[in-house]
């Protein structure tokens, strides 16, 4: 049975888990606090992936995996069915017609710009949600998507939904767990691919699997050890589905940054995804 993976992001539940991850401040007479973070880890934790320069790096790295290009801003017009059971995949974050986030995007776009070129597809997008069907979308949906991508309001709408559903929750959860820029990016990339539903391969269950093996810095754990545990869990999740079974975006990208101790995701960065080499100077 097809299981949506992108749409299933439950923001309230994710933020709730983030709140649970924040340690309670002890009184002065309580037991000693967890060991202090190293200077490097503390600096990474103080920074955030939501810093504009870091966010730009994150967009480029995700685009290298999703679109084989660092030019993420060229992807607003992207749309195709990649035969992964999720219908059309499109835009800067891979919104899918079969998983509901494309529907949410077009609904939001229609709120801010009624009568736009995609508004007429809303009934069809509601019908195909949860399936890989193109019913009511073909033959002109892809052409109209590309046409909409020329509109600045549609680009803003894609940015808005990317941040609301994927970027902001992953950064907030990362900060609550006490992990720095790299860790927050690792969370973000996982949410982009797996969503945050209730299925075993969703972000929250990848994180739960990692927590069974290592503690995050917010619980007194070692950041590198915890991120390795998270990546191990992520690789397991990817291998559960044929469409995601190539784990190079972890093995030859994220794991490379982690092995180098680059917890703040500082440039220069060199990595490979699916055999292609990339560089940010």
Short précis:
The protein has 281 residues and is mainly alpha-helical. The protein is 49% helix and 6% strand. It is built from eleven helices and five strands; from the N terminus they run αααβββααααααααββ.
Structure description:
This protein has helices at residues 11-21, 39-46, 52-67, 101-112, 122-128, 141-148, 152-176, 181-194, 203-211, 223-238, 248-259; strands spanning 79-81, 88-90, 95-96, 269-273, 276-280. It contains eleven helices and five strands. Helix 4 packs across helix 7. By secondary structure, the protein is mainly α. It is 49% helix and 6% strand. The strands form two sheets. A three-stranded antiparallel sheet has the order 1-2-3, with helices on one face. Strands 4-5 form a two-stranded antiparallel sheet. The model is unreliable at 1-37 (pLDDT under 50). The protein is globular, with a radius of gyration of 19 Å. A hairpin with a 6-residue loop joins strand 1 (79-81) and strand 2 (88-90).
Helical segment count: 11
- In order across it, which strands form the biggest sheet? 1-2-3
Q: Compute the gyration radius: what is it?
A: 19 Å
Portion in strands: 5-15%
Features:
single chain; 281 residues; mainly alpha; three-stranded antiparallel β-sheet; two-stranded antiparallel ribbon; 11 helices; 5 strands; 6% strand; globular; disordered N terminus
Topology overview:
Blueprint: H1 11-21, H2 39-46, H3 52-67, E1 79-81, E2 88-90, E3 95-96, H4 101-112, H5 122-128, H6 141-148, H7 152-176, H8 181-194, H9 203-211, H10 223-238, H11 248-259, E4 269-273, E5 276-280
Antiparallel strand pairs: 1-2, 2-3, 4-5
């Amino acid at each position: 049975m097809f299981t949506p993976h992108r749409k299933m992001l439950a923001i309230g539940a994710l933020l709730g888990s983030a709140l649970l991850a924040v340690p309670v401040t002890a009184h002065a007479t309580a037991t000693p606090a967890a060991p202090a973070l190293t200077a490097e880890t503390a600096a990474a934790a103080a920074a955030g992936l939501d810093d504009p320069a870091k966010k730009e790096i994150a967009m480029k790295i995700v685009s290298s995996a999703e679109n084989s290009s660092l030019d993420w801003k060229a992807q607003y017009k992207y749309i195709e069915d990649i035969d992964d059971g999720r219908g059309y995949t499109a835009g800067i974050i891979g919104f899918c017609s079969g998983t509901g986030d494309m529907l949410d995007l077009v609904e939001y776009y229609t709120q801010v710009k009624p009568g736009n070129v995609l508004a007429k597809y809303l009934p069809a997008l509601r019908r195909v949600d949860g399936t890989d069907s193109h019913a009511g979308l073909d033959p002109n949906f892809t052409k109209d998507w590309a046409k909409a991508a020329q509109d600045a309001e549609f680009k803003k709408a894609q940015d808005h939904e990317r941040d609301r559903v994927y970027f902001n929750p992953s950064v907030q959860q990362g900060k609550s767990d006490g992990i720095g820029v790299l860790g927050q990016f690792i969370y973000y990339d996982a949410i982009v691919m797996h969503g945050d539903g209730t299925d075993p391969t969703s972000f929250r269950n990848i994180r739960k699997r990692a927590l069974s093996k290592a503690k995050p810095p917010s619980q007194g754990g070692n950041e590198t050890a915890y991120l390795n545990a998270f990546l191990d869990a992520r690789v397991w999740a990817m291998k559960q589905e044929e469409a995601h079974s190539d784990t190079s975006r972890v093995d030859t990208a994220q794991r490379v940054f982690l092995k180098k101790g680059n917890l703040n995701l500082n440039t220069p960065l060199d990595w490979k995804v699916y055999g292609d080499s990339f560089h940010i100077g």
